[in-house]
Amino acid sequence: MEKWVPNNESLRFGARLPKVEQVKMTTSYKLDTMIKVDEGLCITCGSCIRACPGGLITLEDFPVPIENGWDFCIDCGHCVAICPTGAMHQRVMGPEDCEPIDIHLVPRWDQVRQFLMTRRSIRGYVNKSIETAPPAAFLAIAYIQLAATALGLGTTFTESIGFASRAYLPLLEVLGMPEGQIPYAIFLIGYPTEFYHPIPKKKPVDVTWR
Fold first, then answer.
1. ∠ CA 168-171-175, rounded to 5°
2. Bigger pLDDT: 162 or 53?
3. Residues 152, 175 within the same domain
4. Could you read off the pLDDT of 105-160 as tens digits, one per residue?
5. Is 140 part of any domain?
6. Per-residue buried b or exposed e for 49-68, using 16+ beta carbons within 10 Å of the residue's own CB
7. What are the residues whose beta carbons fall under 8 Å from the beta carbon of 49, sequence distance 6 or more?
8. In a domain, 114, yes or no
9. So what's the pLDDT on residue 31?
10. Cα–Cα distance measured from residue 137 to residue 139, given in angstroms and rounded to the nearest whole number
11. CA quadruple 29, 31, 36, 41: dihedral positive or negative?
């Protein structure tokens, strides 16, 4: 167990974080290097370099991992999903492991709007246990992401800014927060610079429902 202890500034705003249980995930690696590029397919467009959230890919003749990239890679699959030619192979997945995106199944804005508008707050429930994790578990955060996607916008949840703002008062001013309030959910939203092709393989979700 590890515990995050807020400093005096964050305590003034009531920020509290519970103990975090560190879970070690076992991963089956397909390669002995972080990434491997099919040089016959790669067009050196640089999409994988720009998409890597850790900045772990650089360009020599073809994309290669930076030194110690293996230790920092989070296996998100962005480099594989962003590649327009299927040239990128990552240590836990390749193009063959990714589900193709069927644009005909991506809902239009009018469909997403109707879906969001028909959702109501449910205050009466059947006395029955939920056997599987429902999509509604994403709560309001998913609403923004769904609507944004249908409008051609991209989003990402960035709790790092939330942590920082609760510990560093000047950042609250930059964010334009009203006095005495702190943000608990922060999104980046805008028009994406890159577009993904297949859906990368996902890590197994480790969830405890109570």
1. 145
2. 53
3. yes
4. 888 888 887 877 766 655 666 676 645 444 433 456 677 777 777 777 777 777 78
5. yes
6. bebbeeebbeeeeebbbeee
7. 57, 58, 59, 63
8. yes
9. 92
10. 5
11. negative
19-73 pLDDT tens trace: 334 334 456 788 999 999 999 999 999 999 999 999 999 999 999 999 999 999 9
Strands (E), the chain: 35-37, 57-59, 63-65, 88-90, 99-100, 154-157, 187-190, 198-199
Question: Of 18, 31, 176, whose CA–CA distance to 94 is shortest?
Answer: 31
Q: Does a structural domain hold residue 168?
A: yes
Element (H, E) at 147: helix 139-150
Indicate the range of 31-35, 99-103, 120-124, 178-182 predicted with least confidence.
120-124
- Does residue 2 fall inside a structural domain? no
Cα angle 114, 116, 121 (rounded to 5 degrees) comes to 125
Distance CA 84, CA 59 (A): 17
Q: For residue 22, what are the domain limits?
A: 8-100
**2-5: Cβ within 8 A, 24+ apart:** none
- Give yes or no for residue 4 having a pLDDT over 60: no
